[in-house]
Amino acid sequence: MSSTADLTPTDPITDVEAKQLRNDFPILEQQVNGHPLVYLDSGATSQKPMCVLEDEQDFYEQHNAAVHRGAHTLAAEATELFENARATVARFVGVGADEVVWTSNATEGINLVAYAIGNASAGRGGAAAERFRLREGDEILVTEGEHHANLVPWQELTARTGATLRHIPIEDDGSIDLGRAAELISPRTRLLAVTHISNVTGVINPIEELVALAHASGALVLLDACQSAPHRPLDLRALDVDFAVFSGHKMLAPTGVGVLYGRAELLDALPPFLTGGSMITTVTLEASEYLPAPQRFEAGTQRVSQAIALASAVGYLEAVGMDRIDAWEAELGQRLVRGFEAIDGVRILGPSAGVPRAGLVSVDVDGVHAHDVGQYLDSLGIAVRVGHHCAQPLHRRFGVTASTRASAYLYNTTEDIDAVVAAMGEVRDYFGAK
Amino acid sequence: MANALDSLYQQVILDHSKQRHGSGLRDGFLAEDHQLNPTCGDEITVRLHGDDALITGISWEGQGCSISMASASILSDLVAEGLSREQLAERIELFRALMHSRGKGIEQDDEPLGDAVVLEGVSKFSARVKCGMLAWVATEHAMTKEHGA
Ligand SMILES: Cc1ncc(COP(=O)(O)O)c(C=O)c1O
C-alpha cells in the first residue's frame, strides 16, 4: 500500500486507502436498487472482511471441537485458539485475559452483571458478594441517553431489589453536565451505568471525570463501550471502569459474540448468572461450587468460532491502526455534520460541527418522518438506520419519536458521506415538505 | 419515472399524509383502540362512530410516517360511506391481503377498497407493511371492543 507508506500511525486513513480496504469486504461491492451500496449503518452492525470469515471457516474445517472438555488433539487445539482469542481481545482493550467473559453481545453482558448483582442481593455468593448487595435506599444511576440495553436491565434489577433507579439528564446538545452529574452521585449510588459514546448523538462522554466522581462516592462504574471499542483505541484499565461491555458484530466480527470486562477482583467476588455445565468445580445433588472467573460466567457450550473470529477482527483493526480509524471517523463525522447542518429543515440531534464527536450523526427532518427519509435514501442504495435506535427516552428528550442516523466505519469514504448529504438535501423536496 | 419509490409514494398518498381526513378524535364513539409500531414509534388512536346498523366514520389521531398517516386518512374516507360491520371487516381482510401481496395486487370485484388500492405499492416493501396496516388493525381491534359485538 504505497499510498500509506509515509503516514504516521496517527494520521487518518485516506480515501484511497478506505477504497482499498473496501476490497476486503465483499458485501460492499454490490448494487442496491440500481445504485452502488453506500453502507452507513455500521453503528447498528458492521460488515465483515474476508479474512475474518475465512478464519471462522478455517476453525470449522480444521480445529472444531468442544473447548475445556476432553483430552483429544482437536479439543486441545480448539481450547488453545479459544483462549488465545480471549487474550487477544483482552490486550486490545488493555485488560487481563481472566477479566474477559464471553457473552452473546453487549446486552447479555449488562444483563449478566445486573442478574449477578440481583443474585448477590438475594444472598448468593457468600461474604465475598456482600459488597454487591442492594438494599432499599441504594441507587443505580444511568443517563437519559442510554441504549435500552443499558437501561431496561437496571429497571428490572431495581424493581427486584427495592433499590432506586435515577438518571443524569442529557443537555440540549446531547452532552452530560458534570455539575449535574456530581449532584446526583452520592454515597447512595452503588453503580453508575453509562455509555462511552452515544449511539444517537455521537457524543463522547467524559468517562474519566464520571469515574472519578463515582469512585469518590464508592460507586462502581459499568461502561457501555459498544460505540467506542470498534472505533477508537480503548484502554479500560486507564479509564478505570469496573465493568465494560461491547459487541463483536459492531467491530467486524460475526454476530453471537460479545465481551464483558470486569475487574478481576470484582468478577471473582460476583455470584454467577447462568449456571450449568463448564462453570463448576464440584457438583453434588444438593449444591455446587463454582470455577473462578471468567469460566464461572460461561455456562454451557461456548461461542467458539465467533470468539476466534472476533480475535481475527481485532487483528484486522490493529493492522489498520485504531488511532488512524479514530482520526478518519472523526473526519467523516465532521463532514457529515457539516453537510447536514447546511440543509434547510434538517436538525442535528447532538453536537454541532466543530465539536468532537464520533463518526455518526442522527437528524430530524422537518415535515418528513424518519421512515420516509430512510426509504428515500434506500432507493438510492444508501443504507442508514431509522427509528428510535433503541433509545426512546433520548428521542423523547429531543421531542421526536424517531430519527435518521448515518454511521461510518473505516471502510467509508468521503464520497459515501457526500452521497448521503446530497440525498438528504433532496428529501424534503421529494415529500413536498418545503 | 414510475420507479418503485414513486409507486410507493404516489401523489395521492403524499396528499393524504398531509391533509389527513378524519384526523382529530371526536366524541360520541362506539369504541376505540390504540396501536403502536415499536420499531419506528408510529402511533395511532382510532375511534369508531355510527349506530347499531352501520359504522359511519372513524376519527383518529396519530403520529407517524406518510404511509401510516395516509393509510388512516384513506380508511377514514372509505368508512365514511357507511359500512356494516361485516362489510368493514371484509374490507380490512381484503386490504390485509393487498398489503401482503408483495407487489402483485389482488383480484377484487366492484372495487370495495376504493382509493386504498393506491397503497398497493407498499406491499413491495416488507418493512412498510406494518405502517400501511396500522390504522386498519386499530379499527379491527376497536370493533372487537364494541359492547355487545
Ligand atoms: C450504545 C449501545 N449499547 C448497546 C447496544 C446493544 O448491543 P447488542 O444489541 O449487540 O447487544 C448497542 C447496539 O445496538 C449500542 O449502540
Structure description:
The complex is a heterodimer of chains A (434) and B (149). Chain A is an alpha/beta fold and 434 residues long. Chain A has helices spanning 15-22, 50-63, 73-92, 106-121, 152-161, 178-184, 207-216, 236-239, 264-269, 304-320, 322-341, 370-379, 392-397, 414-430; strands at residues 31-32, 35-36, 38-39, 100-103, 139-143, 164-168, 189-195, 220-224, 243-247, 258-262, 280-283, 288-290, 346-348, 360-365, 382-383, 385-387, 403-407. Chain A folds into 2 domains: 2-45 and 322-428, Aspartate Aminotransferase, domain 1 (Alpha-Beta Complex), CATH 3.90.1150; 55-318, Aspartate Aminotransferase, domain 2 (3-Layer(aba) Sandwich), CATH 3.40.640. In chain A, 38% of the residues lie in helices and 16% in strands. In chain A, the strands form 5 sheets. Chain A has a 7-stranded mixed β-sheet with strand order 4-10-9-8-7-5-6, with helices on both faces. Chain A has a 4-stranded antiparallel β-sheet with strand order 13-14-17-16, with helices on one face. Chain B has one domain: Sufe protein. Chain: A (Alpha-Beta Complex). Chain B is globular, with a radius of gyration of 14 Å. The mean pLDDT of chain B is 92. Classes of the chains: A alpha/beta (434), B alpha+beta (149). Chains A and B meet through helix 12 of A and helix 1 of B. Residues 105-107, 147, 149-150, 195, 199, 224, 226-227, 247, 390 of chain A line the site of pyridoxal-5'-phosphate (PLP). The site of pyridoxal-5'-phosphate has 13 residues of chain A, from helix 4.
